[in-house]
Write a structure and sequence with these properties.
Layout lengths: L4 E5 L5 E6 H7 L2 E13 L2 E9 L10 E2 L2 E4 L11 H7 L9 E12 L2 E14 L12 E8 H8 L5 E8 L2 E8 L8 H12 L8
Parallel strand pairs: 3-8
Antiparallel strand pairs: 1-2, 3-4, 3-6, 4-5, 4-9, 7-8, 9-10, 10-11
Helix pairs in contact: 3-4
């Protein structure tokens, strides 16, 4: 996976070359990713799903993250990124079922790791709860939270949210804080929440 080849860009999204995924994260090159957020409407409320990253992941193990996401390789188009939903979550989703949420920039800086992404974000409105058919090397569980709570959480209006779902085959119900998530920028989370809210019924912002 570290040897996957990605297109690299300048800050204005001009293509400047190709590099291995390892070098992209070591040197902090801008690159493209695919992000799919899944929302379900149930009993008059909207719920947003998060994946729990596998504890075997080199980066951010066991933390909550985007429902399904992945890098767009140098030979791929954005549309090819929809494969991540099937690979990680085990559900078949076609590109024409997704609602574009635009490209949202996101930067994560850690020791010896700089992740600068042009994230192509999409929304999928699911009509049924997600299953346990997960790619265990990547995803160890799935949880959901009330979207309105998540929206307030992104804007710092509340300090935590309640999530429920499963980890492996075990059900979980838990109150979580920001530390439970992959450390995406606050601006990224706010942009995601705003864009999702504009596309779902009953969301007040």
């Amino acid at each position: 996976m570290e040897n996957e080849i990605l297109n690299i860009y300048d800050e204005h999204r001009n293509l400047i070359g190709k590099e291995s995924r390892k070098e992209v994260h070591r040197k902090g090159y801008w690159h493209e990713t695919f992000h799919c957020w899944i929302v379900e409407h149930e009993n008059g409320a909207n719920y947003i799903y998060f994946q729990i990253r596998s504890d075997e992941k080199a980066d951010f193990p066991s933390l909550l993250d985007i429902t399904a996401a992945g890098h767009i390789l140098s030979h791929e188009t954005v549309e090819d990124g929809v494969r991540e939903v099937k690979e990680e979550l085990g559900i078949d989703v076609a590109m024409n079922e997704l609602i574009p949420l635009s490209i949202i920039r996101d930067t994560i800086k850690m020791d010896n790791f700089i992740d600068r992404e042009f994230g192509h974000n999409f929304l999928y409105k699911s009509e049924q709860p997600l299953t346990t058919d997960l790619q265990v090397e990547e995803v160890s569980g799935i949880v959901k939270a009330n979207f309105q709570d998540f929206y307030q959480f992104c804007y710092g209006e509340i300090e935590g949210i309640f999530v429920e779902g499963f980890l492996g085959t075990d059900p979980i119900r838990r109150w979580i804080s920001k530390d439970a998530f992959v450390p995406h920028q606050d601006t990224y989370f706010k942009s995601v929440a705003e864009r999702i809210a504009s596309h779902i019924d009953g969301a007040s912002i």
